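Aim 2, interim progress. The first record below pairs a target sequence with its C-alpha cells.
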Amino acid sequence: MSLLKTALLMRSTRDTRSSPSRTWWSTEAKELEIRLYGAIEAIRADTMAVLRLNRSSASR
C-alpha cells in the first residue's frame, strides 16, 4: 500500500471517529479520495509507460 493511500485512509478514519455527526461528509470525502487515488495511480502508470517508450526509442 502506498504512503499516500495509507495517509488518506488514516485521515478519513480519524475524521469519522472524531465527529460521528459528519458521517455523511466523511463517507463522501472517502469516496472522493478513493477516486483521486485511482486517478493518481492511472497517471503514474501512463507516465511510466511513456518513459519506457522514450527510453526504448532513445536506445535505437
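The second target in this work package is listed in the same format:
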Amino acid sequence: MSTWEVQALLRAERWAGDEALGREFVALGRPAPVPGEGLSAEQVAEIRRVKARVDSERLPRGADPATHTKLGRGGLADVEWTAQLLQLQHAAAHPGLRVTGTVPALAALAEAGLLEPSSGTRCGRRGSWPAGRATPSSWSGAGRVTSCPGRGWS
C-alpha cells in the first residue's frame, strides 16, 4: 500500500452510498494501517511533496496564502497534514493514534506526548481558530469565509 493510500485511510469515513458496503470498506482500514517502523525519510519527503503540490494547485487564483484559513500557511490543511504525518510516524509505538479525524488525532497526539497539550486542546476545540472563523458568516448567510481580515480589522 502506498504512503498516500495509508494516509487516506486515516481519514476514511462513510458519508453516502450503500451503508453495508461503506462500513465494510471503512473496516478494512481499522485500525488505520501504519508502518511498523514509522515513516522512512523517503516517505516523509513524499508526503511533503504531495502537500506542496496540493498547496500550489488548490489555493484559488489571487488568494493570499498568508490569510487563507484553509490552505494558507498554518491553516486547517497544515493542521490536518501535520496530524496525519505524526500519526503515521508514531502510531506503531502509540496505538491510541490510530483514530480518524483531525480533532481526535490532535487529542491523541497530545495524550501521547507528541504535541503540547495546550496545542492539542486549542486546535481541537470546536469554535477555535481557524475553524471558528467561518462559523459566524455561515450563520449570517454571508457565505463561506476563506480568508482572515487584514490588520486594522475589528
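Residues 3-140 form a domain with the Four Helix Bundle (Hemerythrin (Met), subunit A) fold (CATH 1.20.120). This observation will shape the mutagenesis plan for the next reporting period.
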